[in-house]
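Write out this protein's structure.
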Amino acid sequence: MPVYVSNLGFPRIGARRELKTALESFWSGKATREALLGTAKDLRAATWRRQQALGLDIVPSGDFSLYDQVLDTSVMVGAIPALYRPLGAPESLDVYFAMARGTQAANAENGCAHGHGHGHGGADVPAQEMTKWFDTNYHYLVPELGPLQRFALTTTKPVDEFREAKALGIHTRPVIIGPVTWLLLAKPAQEGFEPLSLLGDLLPVYVELLSRLRDAGADWVQIDEPALVLDLDDAARAAFRTAYAEFAERVSGLKLMLATYFGGLGDNLETAVGLPVAGLHVDLVRAPEQLDAVVGKAPANLTLSLGVVDGRNVWKTDLAAVLDRIAPVAARRTKLLIAPSCSLLHVPVDLDLETKLDPAVKDWLAFGVQKLEELALLGKALNGGRESVGEALAANAASIAARRASPLVRDPAVRARLAEVDAGWSVRSAPFAERIAAQRAILALPPLPTTTIGSFPQTAAVRKARAAHGKGDLDDAGYDAFLREETERAIRWQEEIGLDVLVHGEFERNDMVQYFGEQLSGFAFTKAGWVQSYGSRCVRPPIIYGDVSRPQPMTVDWWRYAQSLTEKPVKGMLTGPVTILQWSFVRDDQPRADTCRQIALAIRDEVLDLEAAGAKIVQIDEAALREGLPLCRTDWQKYLDWAVDAFRLASSGVRSETQIHTHMCYSEFNDIIAAIGAMDADVISIETARSKMELLDAFATSAYPNEIGPGVYDIHSPRIPTPGEMQHLLRAAGERLLVRQLWVNPDCGLKTRGWDEVRPALVNMVEAAKAVRAGTG
């Protein structure tokens, strides 16, 4: 039997971020609903046709989303909290985008005043909570479920898109998120409730959906259940057995491909291979060691889909090594597919769009399109013999060998310096109690000091000036003058509204990781290597291909200029080593811990230079520390040991009176609170607005001694919180921690927001802090 080539999912943003443009035009009122949906339809058609042209036997549908695939599932099954139901029909874009982004009638960005079919009649509602999709940098909207939840098939999106592809002459394999994974990702609406208890109520909706897909002509459906790579208890394993037994009994004539990824099945292997499904996909990139066990346990009639091309990184696949590993399996099994390890959502679309990359580095890379080309080559070699694609295999082998031998990847000086590091480099010169006393004496801040996380809006004018400078239309002197004006304006405005600790606004920075990577050795950057983070938010992750060092100071001049404009303290703003690592495409030829320590030494040099220039506060953001946590608990401590050590290596060289801040994005902190304490940052700011301060419970329970800035303003939504809302959040924080521990700040940086939102929100924040400080809030 032939080996078939399949894909699990493809980037939906478009090669040139067409979806981002369409979404933001719609939200601003510049485009109609029909225009947005038309762009989405065109993107889907182009994606299906491209995958078909690349030689795939199995093309997915249903992997497209206007915002997030988990939100799509929530809306599809009717899991729409009561807060959003008055905004429109359950399947409407009004409800969908309100769940994603919140809405506020007075705010222009949500389009309410523009008459384009997405007004909300004066409604003022926050967005749903958002967190990271497993251990990726993709964010999903967290379903919120309670005991009164009732499910119904509210939309038929997977069926509609299957039919859409069918009308183009392309027979696809629809993709849906599995019911057990969706429930395990959900948040209980009330304490003590277990969302998994709703499985029996949810399954009839999935049965109806699967039946409709079958009736529309689908022969296979891919059901994504990545939760099968987690540490599951008996109840969760039983839920999988219950769900798939129900499908087998009630949906005939349809084959299910159970897709797992991001890790190995481990203790869940017996459960997975025992389910009554026709196919099983496993990730052999993240967990290559599971191949023999999976093949040994899988029934002979089970179609195996082997994830052999990395869906989360950008390096070329060693095709010969894959063939050596997979060919024996193909010879033994009659039903075999090859595929990426996971959806290609996590990689850029097309390497061919990169025209300015170093040719040597570019030759080592593969983006989404190229990964599918690799799979097509593997399929031809497995079905027709290696000689049928001998020239392509030889070119691949030469590229792999060139990378291994290249002097670009190794710097003897970096390695020698790292060898000199001992444990003393990662320890502050005094304990926190002594440090904070010295810092308070120097800074002389009021209780509940106010600050922001770092960045201010990157306006159209800022982006235009940066683009003009990049093209050579604006010279260095002109660009520098522009940035100085923006920085001074930001400093003056912060003074005017009464913020206590200021930031310079980061107008010179394109991205919190890219900006530093462009000044460090060992990094490469793309022009079109965009990856979706959430909704319309896209990032271009740097590519770490070699040893990392800092040739010269990166931020000192801009900090020095900003501080010269004010008597108030201005924070030095840096991105931490773990976050630079996590938000980059990382070299795979050495342990990640080694690369992280190299980055930590580079950031340490910058911290010490800022201190020497006079900075009293240096913030080293570790927004991604929690997301790097391995999915299985048995691997946690090893990761936390090196991740925390990297932060401490970067931050511990300063004097006691220099205050070290850090920031962490959406995270569940309960399980890693000891590691957060071990980071020993003087102040940590965290995102808590959407969770209504629930994330502080971990800090309260552990009697966390250091200072904390719990976010009181959700910057991922366009709505502007009132002073009363923020006072309420501050009071909730004060019930969990001592007031003297608390700072007041937004949830995250303000780069992606507009000044029309930021100005009133921060004025309200300062007002709220003053009111609570005075005992009137």
